[in-house]
Write a structure and sequence with these properties.
Two copies of one chain form a homodimer. Chain A is an alpha/beta fold and 286 residues long. Chain A has a domain of 115 residues: 2-keto-3-deoxy-galactonokinase, C-terminal domain (Nucleotidyltransferase, domain 5), CATH 3.30.420. In chain A, the strands form three sheets. Chain A has a five-stranded mixed sheet with strand order 9-8-7-10-11, sandwiched between helices. Chain A is globular, with a radius of gyration of 21 Å. Chain A starts with 24 loop residues before the first helix and ends in a 12-residue tail after the last helix. At the A-B interface, strand 9, helix 3, helix 5, helix 6 and helix 7 of A face strand 9, helix 3, helix 5, helix 6 and helix 7 of B.
Chain lengths: 286, 286
Amino acid sequence: MSPADVVLDQRRSDQGMGGLAPDAFEPALLTLVADWLEGRDTTDVVICGMAGARQGWQEAPYQAVPCAPVGPSVAVKTRDPRLNVHLLAGLCQNEPADVMRGEETQIAGYMAQNPTVSGVLCLPGTHSKWARITGGKVTGFTTAMTGEVFSLLSKKSVLRFNTADGWDDDAFARAVREGAQRADALLTTLFSLRAGGLLADVPAGASRARLSGLLIGAECASCLRPGDAPVIIGDEKLGALYHSAFNAMGISSALADGDGLTRAGLCAAHRVIASRTGVDSTGVDK
Amino acid sequence: MSPADVVLDQRRSDQGMGGLAPDAFEPALLTLVADWLEGRDTTDVVICGMAGARQGWQEAPYQAVPCAPVGPSVAVKTRDPRLNVHLLAGLCQNEPADVMRGEETQIAGYMAQNPTVSGVLCLPGTHSKWARITGGKVTGFTTAMTGEVFSLLSKKSVLRFNTADGWDDDAFARAVREGAQRADALLTTLFSLRAGGLLADVPAGASRARLSGLLIGAECASCLRPGDAPVIIGDEKLGALYHSAFNAMGISSALADGDGLTRAGLCAAHRVIASRTGVDSTGVDK
């Protein structure tokens, strides 16, 4: 990024906490961007997400809600002196117990662009996050295991025979409404996908869309409150899917680009880190 | 079995539909019980369950509810002329779509021993079945994917880090009540197991029991009706678990032995098959 928060270049890698030991993060970063460091004394690196988990590069704290989404950060000691690496804190909630790492930075990006926002942000994914925002703070949030449950059921359960591939928009919309109305019956409704395949030869595309719709409908029913008009923060495909789910339920929603908001949140965090003066005795930036 | 339905001998094998091609069922049966056939012209073999599925030994029909649980059977052509094999029909329901294979025989066994039963039978398992019985007929039934979802979440999901082993009876009872009261929030409540492990070091035993309790509580909430006093048909361990779940919810229930009822149901079906006179043009016993 330039000092004016303009993107100069970008690189992507699928290497992360799932496959890297703590001492493998720095080499992985250098493999990706070593040429960016040439000719500079130091380069600031601001990192959100699972690199700050207990099994990540180094553990970053959780900040308890209610709080602003940009909180503490930790400075990471690197072997290469040209790197000035900071890991951002995640958010936690004590009751009900909940945690996030990474999504708080997208939330920070959205709030940097929309300082007076009040309402609910929906961040769909493997573990969807729903965050309530008021007065510049995240007041509470909820995680739904929707994406992971969809993946397990469609790939590893008996439903895999009926939900391998394909798609049907109408079946999705109907299932969203059914899932929302009968969220309490999810464990039993799911099996109807198998039985429908056996008894009525329901096509796989319709079954796959119905599985997705039942889960997303149940997620929305348990996370939405009356009057909510969610802002969806996600990648293009998943964002569009949740947008159509809200449409099916007659709920207005808006879409925001997840990648752009991650960058905006990292820039907001970088401004805070740059204003700090050092590191305290526990390794947290102060 | 003797003609008076007394067990003379029993053998078990884990070979079944999951691992056998259609033409491998007869050899697998002979490997298990060939010595039983010696010195007899023919031996009747009555089979319930997934051997009658489309991917099984030979497809047996589904009988649509409402109906008595002992219905049509199909005679299987065998290479060994001493075998007289019959596959029992499963049950199906058109709306909501549902199927069972095998449990109808346990239900038949229970109804043979309790001809005037009226109420709900709960058959816990990978796919739990809840069957409504009135006037000698199964009037409807519901499948809940509780066991399979528990297995996937505790072994394959992010929750596996918190639910690997151990048990805590009190955590189970509390979770059953919570799961029943908040059945509509299952997708979000589940993630609290992960967050509780990260934030409060909840022991794995308590988390594993809580995962089981949340799922069983949600299953019961969606399947129970006011006034139900379920009869639980299952193996010793799972039967006791559901019995304690009903206790936690203040619901009286009774336990029946699944293996004994399978035998009683097979005997009831054998009496019907023995009274039949042949096979119709579609291969169904008549």
